[in-house]
Amino acid sequence: MGATCLHLETKRSGELASPFESGMAIAATKDAQDSDLAQNAEELRDLARAESLRWHRLERRRRPYPNDFSHKIIRALIEQASVGGNTGLIFLTREDRGWVMDNIRLLQTVLQEVLQTRHSFTEQPHVRSQDGRVVARSQVIADAFLRAVDFSFETEALAAYLSAWLEHQRLEMGELWALKPALQVCILEKLAGMIAPFLDYPALSFRLAYADGRIGIRGLITALRNIGETDWKHLFEQISVVDRVLRQDPLGIYTQMDYESRDLYRNVIADLASHSEMDEVEVAEAAVFLAQGATKHVTVNQGRLERESHVGYYLVDGGLPDLRRFIRHRS
Q1: Where are the alpha helices (DSSP H) in the chain?
Q2: pTM over 0.70
Q3: How far apart are CA 66 and CA 277, in angstroms?
Q4: Residue 59 CB coordination number (10 Å)
Q5: What is the largest CA-CA distance in the chain?
Q6: C-alpha distance from residue 234 to each of 121, 160, 182, 237 (Å)
Q7: Which of 2-6, 120-124, 269-273, 325-329 has the lowest mean pLDDT?
Q8: Separation CA 237–CA 229 (nearest Å)
């Protein structure tokens, strides 16, 4: 899925291209890269559409988090490295050993983040595959996406993949936030599968799926670093359908608010949806609908009209009871 590059050929050996020719070559290269990126994005969207149809959402209920031996493998690796040992790592290539030892702190941080958030998967929507497997949907998406991109990671690619998934299944906001740890879990599992045979965990090694031969330790660690450096707040708002709906606020105030204020509104919507038959998107649409209706009222109180024409009035102000009645809120 690499970008296509075009190079300018001169008429004679050693002849310099004119500024016009150079400009044309740069433009051609950019056009080719844009075309290639667009093609790759569409391929990802096609894969996401097909994958989303393989899974069916189950009735919401708390499900246990599966035992994950990869956590123990990575922890053992970190413990070995922290005391200056590399007993198992001597069997790795010099390059792989260098990548592991140079990124122990990164692995430690990622493992800590995963262990802190893993239980959030137990209460998330789960799906069943055609062969009967039951998995948290965020984990399904993370695994399918990483397989589609050979375990590399780019935010634009993930956004393209999710855009197609959302065509068939609405994701809750909590699932979108869970994508980061879900991606980290998938990569740690692959990394553990490559390292386990070289550590003193023979009884656990066979329980891990070994990484594809095309996937190297360097690539996995690079993917972990890219995930950590991603602006997840920006990505969330880029792909969140709830955020897109709220941006239809009749007064346009929502788009002018800071991130924390917008996030407060979205958290209220998530809570309201948990007490209603409506999902989060439908609750957001209801708030926008009520705000749009207020703009049609005839009143001499312009201040009140403006206040009631903002979605926030129905989420965190006097219009909240009206919204609760509209969505048939259950206590």
Answers
A1: 19-52, 69-82, 94-102, 104-117, 137-148, 155-165, 173-177, 179-195, 202-205, 217-229, 232-239, 241-246, 253-256, 259-273, 280-294, 302-308, 312-316, 320-326
A2: yes
A3: 29
A4: 6
A5: 80
A6: 22, 14, 18, 5
A7: 2-6
A8: 17
- Contact indicator for 285, 242 with CB cutoff of 8 Å: no
User: pLDDT tens digits for 96-130?
Assistant: 888 888 898 999 999 999 888 888 888 889 999 87
Supply the DSSP string of 287-303, one letter for each residue. Answer: HHHHHHHHTT---S-HH
6-61, pLDDT tens digit by residue?
232 333 344 545 554 555 545 555 555 555 667 788 999 999 999 988 888 888 77
Q: What is the chain's length?
A: 331
Q: How many whole angstroms separate alpha carbon 164 and alpha carbon 174?
A: 18
What mean pLDDT is predicted for residues 247-267? Answer: 96
User: b vs e for 4-33, b when ≥16 Cβ sit within 10 Å of the residue's Cβ?
Assistant: eeeeeeeeeeeeeeeeeeeeeeeeebeeee
β-bridge mates for residue 56, sequence order: 128
Structure token digits, residue 257:
């608010």
pLDDT band at 87 (very low <50, low <70, confident <90, very high): low
277: left (phi over 0), alpha (psi -120 to 50) or beta: alpha
Burial 296-326, CB ≥16 within 10 A → b, else e = eeeeeeeeeeebbbbbbbbbeeebbebbbeb
Using CA atoms of 294, 299, 302, 305 in order, give the dihedral in degrees to the nearest 10: -10
- Phi then psi for residue 128, to 5 deg, are -115, 135
